[in-house]
Every structure is written in C-alpha cells, then in structure tokens.
Amino acid sequence: MVWTHITHLELVGLLLIGVAAWGKGFGLVSSIHIIGGVIAVGVFLLLIAIVGLIGAIHHHQVMLFFYMVVLFIVFLFQFGVSCSCLAMNRGQQETLLNSAWRMLENKTKTDLESQLNCCGLLNVTANQAQFDLDLQNCPALCKKNTVCYTCGDMMLTHATEALKILGGVGLFFSFTEILGVWLAVRYRNQKDPRANPSAFL
After folding, report:
1. Please, which residues have CB within 8 angstroms of residue 65's CB and are 6 or more apart in sequence?
2. Rounded to the nearest 10 degrees, what angle do helices 106-116 and 128-137 cross at?
3. By the 8 A CB rule, do 151 and 127 touch?
4. Cα dist. 43→13, 35, 82, 92, 183 in Å?
5. In this structure, which long-range contacts are made by residues 55-63, counting pairs with CB atoms below 8 Å and at least 24 apart in sequence?
6. Residue 13 pLDDT exceeds 80
7. Distance (Å, rounded) from C-alpha 195 to C-alpha 60?
8. Looking at residues 168-189, what average pLDDT do you find?
C-alpha cells in the first residue's frame, strides 16, 4: 500500500510538470512565473515521492520520517485550501479575483483576455481606473462588436461550480495523503526483514 501511495504522488508531480509544459507549448499561458511555479510544485512533489520510495526500499528510518513530515504538511495545506474552496461565497470570489488580477503582469492579462474573448476584470466603481486601462489595452476580438463581457463576469459564472469540484477533489486527495502518512508510520515501525536478527539494534 505504501508503494501505491508513493507512485500516486509521483504521478501528480509528473502531471503538474506536463500540464505546465503543455500550457506553455500551446501558448495558453505566457507568464514564466506561473509556468515556473507550477513546474516547481511538480518537481517538489516528485522529489518527495522519490525520497519516500528510496526510504521504503531501503527501510531508511530518516527518509521515511522526512517523507511523513512533508506529506503531513502538504495534507494540512491541501485540506485548508479545499475547505476554503467549498466555503467561498460570491463576494469572497470577487475579492480573490481582484487581488489575483492586480498581481498579474500586463502580458498575462492580455493573453487571458484573448483566450476568453473578454475585456477587463469587473466594471465596478472601486476599480474604475484599472478597468478603463485594461479596456484600452484589451486585444480581444469582442471589442469590435457592441457587446464585450468582462472577464470577471465570465469567470464568476463558472467559479462556484469549479470551486466545488476543486474543493471536493482536493478534499478527497488530502485524505489519501493522511492515509499515506499512516501507512508510512506503520511501515517505518516494522522490523527490517534484511536486518540481522542477532544484532542488538
């Protein structure tokens, strides 16, 4: 069972690296920071899985302990994010979108507007100056038409359903991670079958 869980973690790491490379290759995301962040998380999970695998093969106590601690930290983070996704209302979604939009580079914003065929985030009084600037720089084809939806409205239309799915899947996999921690503890406490039975330690 511990082998199955470690392999699952390796697959998640490889999947993240593959999705980031696919997104960059097809031009869906041009920001090197986003691509780099996703690849870094994938490499980190892959390395943790390799440490767990080596620890399990050699029955290495320190490696298995390190694997358990890191996996438990990942569980806490993923469990918290999943619960937040399930509990988030529309007002909180708008606040989160505004915060994320302000942090994006202009190139990333224009890429997003081109992909979704929308302009700006939300046409509200609080962010009117930012919205006017985004509208001026917007490369979307819908600008030629009379009606051009805001990206915020388009994202919020599907955000609630997407957050529920994301939260549910994240919650499910967070419990598989705590199962992995429990299995690693059980395996770590087992006697190494290759050890000399006549040795004191």
Report:
1. 188
2. 70
3. no
4. 6, 12, 22, 31, 23
5. 56/2, 56/3, 56/6, 56/184, 56/187, 59/190, 59/192, 59/194, 59/195, 61/188
6. no
7. 12
8. 78
**Cα separation of 118 and 140, whole Å?**
6
* pLDDT at residue 183, rounded to an integer: 78
| Between residues 120 and 32, the one the model is more confident about | 120
Distance CA 33, CA 145 (A): 33
Rounded Cα gap, residues 12 and 18, in angstroms: 10
The end-to-end CA distance of the chain, in Å, is 27
Integer angstrom CA distances of residue 153 from 72, 96, 97, 127, 157: 37, 13, 10, 14, 6
- pLDDT confidence of 139, banded at 50, 70, 90? confident
Nearest to 136 by CA among 153, 152, 115, 119: 119
